[in-house]
TrEMBL record:
Keywords per UniProt: Cell membrane, Membrane, Transmembrane, Transmembrane helix, Transport
Classification via PROSITE patterns: ABC_TM1
Gene Ontology annotations for the cellular component aspect, listed alphabetically: plasma membrane
Membrane topology term: Multi-pass membrane protein
Protein's name according to its UniProt entry: Peptide/nickel transport system permease protein
Organism encoding this protein: Kribbella caucasensis
Transmembrane spans: 33-53, 99-123, 130-153, 159-176, 203-230, 267-290
Localization of this protein: Cell membrane
Stored InterPro entries: BP-dependent_transpt_permease, MetI-like, MetI-like_sf
Similarity field: Belongs to the binding-protein-dependent transport system permease family.
Listed GO MF terms: dipeptide transmembrane transporter activity
Record carries keyword RNA-binding: no
Length: 309
């Protein structure tokens, strides 16, 4: 009898229900997520307030200077370009466009992935077959050559065109993931209850299905943003972007055209490439972290310290 009373006096919490703020606490306790968040925060600060990191610059960083091809010094930390422009100032001011490309293109590709993938899984039948076939067509297309063709003929140098091209070519893999996840949820009890209540399909998808896929959606966005950063830098390096814009890919383009390595200025060529790599690392770390948070099987096993008795 005492065992029964003790069992009822201290009820266990409902299994599978995460306490409020559980996702945020999981991020705080994940080293990959924290490192990725710190790097991404730094890039956001550079993009939002570039003048704070180059307080001595009183002109447009694209303005032609009178000291071309200077080596790194106390006056020019990363040297100058062939037109006398400060490389460090251009690196800082280029963060904004590169980050805008990553966020806007990643967000657009994620929205398209969610719309097509979740709709295909929930609607089923002919709609599923048509949308899945549409997704498969984009999955098998050679992506980078298609991007080059579209960026060249749709509007060379136009930032909006580059973003649209990245969205069009970057949604299909995420849509396949969304469809698979939504199919696993399609016959769950809470969705059956919503159907019995007479809820509309749009309500069920937005209110019932999507909140259970939050971690996957976030991971999909981070992966799409990473793809957008690297692909946009590649396009701009090939000269398919606006050569007068301030972005890391354009810096690489001019460093190659003006012979940065030949003139003994490796900082001019390597610094924008390192910036692209670090921004990509921040997205990749956050992506891996959200994969671990959403899938306990991927979490590393941590050894527990022996407690002293």
């Amino acid at each position: 009898m005492s065992a029964i009373v003790a069992g009822t006096a201290a009820p266990t919490p409902t299994a599978g229900r995460r306490p409020r703020g559980g996702l945020w606490r999981a991020v705080l306790h994940n080293r990959k997520a924290m490192l990725g968040a710190v790097l991404l925060t730094l890039f956001c600060l550079l993009a939002a307030f570039p003048h704070l990191f180059v307080p001595w610059l009183e002109r447009d960083p694209r303005a032609i200077g009178d000291m071309p091809l200077q080596h790194p010094s106390s006056e020019h930390w990363l040297g100058t370009t062939g037109l006398g422009q400060d490389v460090y100032a251009q690196l800082v001011y280029s963060t904004r466009e590169s980050l805008i490309i990553a966020v806007v293109a990643g967000l657009g590709a994620t929205i398209l992935s969610v719309l097509i993938g979740v709709s295909a899984a929930y609607l089923g039948g002919v709609a599923d077959n048509v949308l899945s076939m549409f997704t498969d067509v984009f999955l098998v297309l050679p992506t980078f050559p298609l991007i080059i063709v579209l960026a060249t003929y749709a509007g060379k140098g136009n930032l909006t065109v580059i973003i649209i091209v990245l969205i069009v070519t970057g949604w299909s893999y995420g849509a396949r993931q969304m469809r698979s996840q939504a199919l696993s949820l399609r016959n769950r009890d809470f969705l059956e209850s919503a159907r019995v209540r007479g809820e509309r399909r749009s309500y069920i998808i937005v209110v019932e299905v999507l909140p259970t896929m939050t971690s996957l959606i976030v991971a999909n966005f981070l992966g799409a943003a990473l793809y957008s950063v690297l692909t946009a830098a590649g396009l701009q390096f090939l000269g398919l972007g606006d050569p007068n814009s301030l972005s890391w890919g354009t810096m690489l383009y001019w460093a190659q055209n003006q012979g940065a390595l030949v003139n003994g200025l490796p900082a001019w060529a390597l610094s924008p490439g390192l910036a692209v790599a670090l921004l990509g690392v921040s997205f990749a770390l956050l992506n891996y972290a959200f994969d671990e948070i959403s899938n306990p099987a991927l979490r590393p096993v941590r050894r527990r310290r022996a407690r002293s008795h």
